């Protein structure tokens, strides 16, 4: 009996040890595995490096690594090998999050055959992790590059793999079509399949949220009520938003009154839509007053509501009020986000105001608010227009250090600027920094840098960059005779 108790205690201790280990994934472990996936030359090499690293490949770690791959755009094929390798271990089951993230990565790379291979494998091993969210992830990627017919065919293929082929899956299809195709396509598919799936409140809210035409939105709103589906606050907010974007403010206010009659109190989203609508009809001051009126309905402005008011003043070129609202946000404990700053960057870009853009960027970084890709593009294009290399390099250095923005989009403009001004040392350094991050420079930028290096007789640097690009499967050498180079694309390009 004592031996049995000791064995049981040992087993429980082991389970506890594994649980603690699997829940204690560090960022260093994630970066280690991410680096192995990014740098591995083959599947066997990757497996060997993973074993040598002695990192415990728990569900938590795999979830975080795949998330890192998704946002870091690492090699999808090596990531697929990693997913299969970890999933084939005896007694191991991938989480639903890992599955959906892997499918997203494959879909982004248009590896649709591999998506169905994964789903077939998972179907036999653990069908329960294939959910309506999985359907949405896959169909969104399919709809992005394939026809409506192919998207619907992919939806029908899910019948044999998903655990429950129901209205939630149907809603996932409609959401993908609303986001990636036209609302007309979504409407047609809805009408062709609605008899096979019983539409629910979410079905109509998905369709209502996509319409830009108030007539179409009104039609679906009526059909919703005819089918006995009672509108909720999301339904009403969608209708109000359509009216506001169509500049039909009076109709929007009538819907708000109807909501109150049904004891549905307007929320922050309701008021934010009204603010946007008032801005479109040229009433930014009245829109600002809505911020105060919100309190009467028991809700308080959030960052999105303030951004809507700030957008109105930016459109009206009243930047003093826009900055004042940013200060007001901060006084209420609401930190301006990347969207807030982007509204101002847009105005400064189109008015060619380099000084204000640079000062705003300094303020943003001081507040530890990282720019989004759109803000980065406004900045880098403005720096290129004014040929301000030092500013461009500060932005790039911050991107590399803090991990914000799109390396691909920003680097194309940056390399153009550096090549225009003959800054080959800086171009090479930025190129290598990008590669170290697992990001592939565009072939256009690569060609231009290489040709200029050839002209400058920098053979060692040229060979180094060519070897780095070969890591991404790029084997072209733009400087040998076997490749034709369009010289017109390498000459000084006009400023944006």
From TrEMBL:
Annotated Pfam families: PPR, PPR_2, PPR_3
Gene3D superfamilies named in the record: Tetratricopeptide repeat domain
Organism whose genome encodes this protein: Cannabis sativa (Hemp)
PPR repeat spans: 232-266, 267-301, 302-336, 337-371
Keyword tags: Repeat, Signal
Keyword Repeat: yes
Entry-linked PANTHER family: OS03G0856100 PROTEIN, PENTACOTRIPEPTIDE-REPEAT REGION OF PRORP DOMAIN-CONTAINING PROTEIN
Family stated for the protein in its record: Belongs to the PPR family. P subfamily.
Stretch forming the signal peptide: 1-20
Name of the protein in its database record: Pentatricopeptide repeat-containing protein
Alphabetized PROSITE patterns for the sequence: PPR (PS51375)
């Amino acid at each position: 009996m004592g031996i049995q108790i000791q064995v049981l205690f040992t087993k429980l201790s082991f389970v506890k040890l594994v649980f603690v280990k699997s829940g204690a994934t560090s960022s260093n472990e994630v970066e280690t595995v991410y680096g192995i996936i990014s740098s591995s030359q083959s599947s066997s090499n990757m497996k060997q490096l993973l074993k040598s690293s002695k990192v415990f490949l728990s569900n938590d770690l795999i979830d975080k690594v795949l998330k890192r791959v998704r946002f870091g755009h690492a090699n999808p094929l090596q990531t697929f090998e990693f997913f299969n390798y970890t999933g084939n271990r005896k007694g191991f089951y991938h989480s639903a999050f890992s599955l959906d993230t892997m499918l997203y990565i494959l879909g982004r790379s248009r590896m649709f055959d591999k998506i169905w291979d994964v789903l077939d494998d998972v179907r036999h091993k653990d069908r329960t992790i294939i959910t309506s969210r999985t359907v949405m992830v896959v169909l969104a990627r399919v709809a992005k590059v394939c026809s409506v017919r192919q998207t619907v065919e992919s939806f029908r293929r899910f019948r044999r793999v998903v655990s429950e082929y129901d209205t939630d899956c149907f809603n996932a299809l409609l959401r993908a079509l609303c986001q990636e195709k036209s609302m007309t396509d979504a409407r047609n598919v809805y009408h062709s399949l609605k008899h096979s799936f019983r539409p629910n409140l979410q079905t109509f809210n998905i369709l209502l949220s996509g319409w830009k035409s108030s007539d179409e939105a009104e039609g679906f709103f009526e059909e919703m009520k005819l089918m006995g589906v009672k509108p909720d606050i999301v339904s009403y907010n969608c209708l109000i938003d359509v009216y506001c974007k169509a500049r039909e403010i009076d109709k929007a206010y009538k819907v708000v009154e109807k909501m109150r009659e049904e004891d549905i109190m307007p929320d922050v989203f309701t008021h934010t839509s009204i603010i946007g609508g008032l801005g479109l009809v040229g009433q930014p001051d009245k829109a600002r007053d809505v911020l105060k009126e919100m309190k009467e309905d028991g809700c308080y402005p959030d960052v999105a509501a303030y951004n809507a008011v700030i957008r109105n003043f930016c459109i009206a070129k009243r930047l003093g009020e826009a900055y004042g609202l940013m200060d007001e946000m901060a006084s209420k404990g609401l930190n301006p986000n990347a969207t807030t700053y982007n509204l101002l960057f847009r105005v400064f870009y189109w008015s060619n105001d380099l000084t204000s853009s640079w000062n705003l960027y300094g303020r943003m970084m001081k507040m530890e608010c990282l720019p989004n890709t759109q803000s980065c593009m406004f900045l880098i294009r403005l720096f290129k227009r004014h040929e301000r290399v030092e500013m461009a390099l500060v932005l790039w250095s911050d991107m590399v250090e803090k991990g914000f923005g799109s390396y691909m989009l920003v680097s194309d403009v940056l390399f153009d600027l550096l090549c225009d001004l003959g800054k080959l040392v800086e171009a090479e350094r930025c190129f290598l920094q990008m590669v170290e991050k697992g990001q592939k420079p565009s072939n256009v930028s690569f060609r231009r840098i290489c040709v200029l290096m050839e002209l400058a007789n920098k053979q060692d640097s040229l060979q180094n960059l060519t070897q780095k690009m070969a890591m991404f499967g790029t084997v072209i050498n733009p400087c040998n005779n076997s490749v034709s180079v369009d010289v017109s694309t390498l000459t000084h390009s006009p400023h944006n």
